[in-house]
Amino acid sequence: MQCFEGCLNRRPGKVSRIFWRLVGFAALLGAINASAATNVVAPPGWRLVWGDEFNQPDSSALNPDKWRYDTGGLGWGNKELQYYTLRTNNSRIEDGNLAIEAHREEFDGRHYTSGRLLTLGKASWTYGRFEARIKVPRGQGIWPAFWMLGTNVGSINWPACGEVDIMENIGKEPGTVHGTAHGPGYSGTGIGGSQTLPAGAAFADDFHVFAVECEPDRITWFLDGRQYFTLAPESLPEKTGWVFNHPKFLILNLAVGGNWPGDPDATSTFPQRMLVDYVRVYEKLASSEIQVPPVVQPRLPNATNR
Length: 306
Ligand SMILES: [Ca+2]
Prior knowledge:
binds calcium ion; 17 strands; 2 domains; disordered N terminus; seven-stranded antiparallel β-sheet; ten-stranded mixed β-sheet; Jelly Rolls; mainly beta
């Protein structure tokens, strides 16, 4: 940085001219690569309205225009063990992914640290398709999640705000993903579905795409493009309410321990890392916006040729 002004004021020699041409060429290549990396093709019938591809340089902090951090270590209502920090030790860009990393370390009275990111105050949506490509970490007591809460959580509290869990995985069920909704009268375990990988495979082995589609009075969960659960008001317990037709924000976090997964044990190893290749939000196209390809009439043989 200190050289920058001086470099500009010097008349460039031959080597320097070649250097700056190379820099310019590299910048052009970088621009082409960045453009290609963000050239997201929306699923048929949807339009991309928000996303993060996490393609900043390695070790960068998250884009502050898109994400904020939750910090603290008071158990988060589940007797979780981690202290969430905003340090790049716990949340940073790595190789085109968001890496949320849980460490076993002493921090403000807690024995683990990790990260929790949210779009509250940055972006929220009532309906749409919400998807992320994630490689989860593994081990007893490890609890990665991709989920949503109603933006009214601060005024009417949980569970009246509604909670939609797009992906939850706990270390003791390495091959199972849970998709769940929580609301008043179905707050504890919630209502949802799950999907288990075949042949003993673990979600930590590879990236998978986790998604929900939120529509008026309907939420549908997908794993790798395949639907596995749908919830509508008629499926709720009697005298409970549908609390999902209002704006929601996204959350990505990696918890350690807690009521559901249980605590880490002697088999658990740290650090553990949740990798998120992208988060994308799509808006459903109106039927008038969906272009139907023109019908091509088959060429009929000319009658005179018969
Ligand atoms: Ca990426």
